[in-house]
Design goal:
With 90 residues, this protein is an all-alpha fold. It has helices at residues 2-30, 36-56, 61-65, 67-89. The model has no long low-confidence stretch (mean pLDDT 83).
Length: 90
């Protein structure tokens, strides 16, 4: 975990958090504006957890590719988790 935070840095974590919040906001807009806070929190957690999960699974190419690859992975992970959350909550 420490090596992940050191590798990404504080700026990277902030960017991942903003990506997750934006994905949650967009998901709530698609869902008709309902549960905005819930979707934003789920998007935030998913965006922060996806690169960490991929690193734990041994996908080291993600870390070597830089911040842009991590943001893309976080966005895809957040979108998948938010889609599942929409199926569950709505």
């Amino acid at each position: 975990m420490e090596e992940f935070i050191q590798g990404v840095g504080v700026v990277g974590l902030v960017v991942l958090a903003l990506v997750g919040l934006a994905a949650g906001w967009i998901a709530s807009a698609v869902a008709g504006g309902r549960h905005r806070g819930r979707y934003m929190i789920i998007g935030l957690l998913a965006a922060l957890a996806t690169p960490l999960l991929l690193l734990a699974l041994g996908v080291t190419v993600l870390a070597a590719s830089g911040l842009v690859a991590m943001v893309v992975a976080a966005l895809i992970g957040a979108a998948v988790v938010l889609f599942l959350a929409k199926l569950i909550f709505d």
